[in-house]
Amino acid sequence: MKRIAVFTSGGDAPGMNACIRAVVRGAVYHGIEVFGIRRGYSGMIAGDIFQMSSHSVSNIVQRGGTILKSARSKEFITPEGRRLAYDQMQKHGIEGLIAIGGNGTFTGAMIFNNEYGIPTVGAPGTIDNDLYGTDYTIGFDTAVNTALDAIDRIRDTASSHDRVFFIEVMGRDSGYIAIQSGIGGGAELVMVPEVLTPISEVVETLRQGWLRSKASSIVVVAEGEEEGSASEIADKIKSQIKEDIDMRVTTLGHTQRGGSPSAYDRILASRLGLGALEGLLAGQKNVMAGIINNELVYTPFEDTIRLPKPINEDLLRMVKILSI
Ligand code: F6P
């Protein structure tokens, strides 16, 4: 293999730049030509492809977002779109790909490889930490710390006013960000899609806090929660209680996607970027590089896409015990 390309796709995540840097510098080290593709599969179809050098990735290890930009391409889902993408790969002489992204990205890569035989190795880049085959994904640690910072600030004002806050965090269908930021922020309750938390249980937990004269209560709600959004849950609770409790709702939203990556994410992204590249050069294809128990491993895309990544229910139990 003499020439490869790297791209980022799906929702951006802090640390993607550190990962791109590791791929590019790794390629230079191994004497391979490396190209960047802008805006993921959309750029692949449009031919937005350029040669990169060691200098192209100077001064980016600390930057949030992705210098290659990102997109969710509808066109790549169609056979015609993938044909156009393949034509561009041929035109630029690209023999292998490094895809930094999540499940949607890897699904596209797998189909593309099955149709056109271009080997791809993935690096898990998503704040959601919802990928089977790695303990942590690039961007998750930073997102948790961003959410935690917001929760700490909200705790200050919640305590001053004796209020209950419902704080909604991201995570799509996964409760990882909610659990970790909830534990770190001393939340009274964490609501996640993976485990049913009936509204009656939320009311009961809050009531126990009022009975013990708690100055404030924080409920962290994952965006995919079955009972609804944080504001829907707050409304349901208001309609079920007689007490005159002051409640507020904050949705943290895309603040969790930006910002300078944490030390952990920079190191993880560097390891996964180089690991993905060296895997590709060693003949791996249709796999995602991951770190499990501090070891670099490769997991077939099929498994990362198909297999669920269960949350640790012991951590939810701990939230309940520690909020007494
Ligand atoms: O997958 C990352 C993520 O931030 C999810 O947590 C969230 O559900 C989604 O992307 C939001 O996507 P968009 O930026 O397209 O609104």
Could you write a compact summary of the structure shown?
The protein is an alpha/beta fold and 324 residues long.
Model description:
With 324 residues, the chain is α/β, with parallel strands linked by helices. Helices cover 43% and strands 18% of the residues. The protein contains eleven helices and eleven strands. A seven-stranded mixed beta sheet has the order 3-2-1-4-5-10-11, with helices on both faces. It has a four-stranded parallel beta sheet with strand order 7-8-6-9, with helices on both faces. α4 links the parallel β4 and β5. It is elongated. The mean pLDDT is 97. It binds 6-O-phosphono-beta-D-fructofuranose (F6P). 6-O-phosphono-beta-D-fructofuranose binds next to loops.
* Structural class by sheet pairing and helices: alpha/beta
Helix content: 40-55%
What bound compounds does this protein have?
6-O-phosphono-beta-D-fructofuranose
Order of helices and strands: EHEHEHEHEHEHEHEHEHEEHH
Oligomeric state of this protein: single chain
User: How confident is the prediction overall: mean pLDDT?
Assistant: 97
